[in-house]
Amino acid sequence: MSQPRYIRRHQNPVFDKQQCPYCRSFVCDRQVAICMMCGSPQCHGNGLGRGQCSLCYVGLLPGWSGSIGKCSYARCGKPAVARGRGHRMVCKSHAEHQGIGTPDLKDWVLVE
Fold first, then answer.
1. 0.85 exceeded by the pTM?
2. b/e per residue 36-52 (b: at least 16 CB within 10 A)
3. SS3 of 98, please?
4. How would DSSP label each residue in 86-97?
5. Which domain holds residue 14?
6. Does residue 73 lie within any of the structural domains?
7. For the chain, what is the domain count?
């Protein structure tokens, strides 16, 4: 039984057993990653850029080496959940203050 996750809307099923049937990545290992910014469940392999969410484009996916850190704002020190404008990493409150992190779901569908 698979866990729910977002996949691209018009994605054809994959029959190669080495690839993830959801994201087509060879490094996914079929795990679900929850974006720390928008909370969207998706394949762990979606973060192939820098460990960033494929839905909101700024949220960090847990398990990626680039997703561990603290907020770059002075004297904040909270855990980072996204990459912000002008700052390397930002916490949830600073990301919301910048107005980033809303997922665009028009090309995605939740499968279970």
1. no
2. bbbebebbbbbbbeebb
3. helix
4. SSS-B-HHHHHH
5. 1-68+102-112
6. no
7. 1
Q: Is residue 80 part of a domain?
A: no
Residue 43 near residue 29 (C-beta atoms within 8 A): no
The CA distance from 96 to 72, in Å, is 14
Dump pLDDT digits (tens) for 11-68.
Answer: 665 556 677 777 777 767 778 889 999 999 988 877 766 788 888 888 999 988 788 8
What are the pLDDT digits (tens) for 66-78?
888 899 998 999 9
How many CB atoms sit inside 10 A of residue 59's CB? 29
67's tokens: 């997703």
Tokens of 92: 């949830």
Q: Is 93 inside any structural domain?
A: no
Asked whether the beta carbons of 95 and 79 are under 8 A apart, the reply is no
Please indicate, yes or no, if residue 16 is contained in any of the structural domains: yes
Measure the CA–CA gap between 74 and 26, rounded to whole angstroms: 39
Question: Chain centroid to CA 30: how far?
Answer: 14
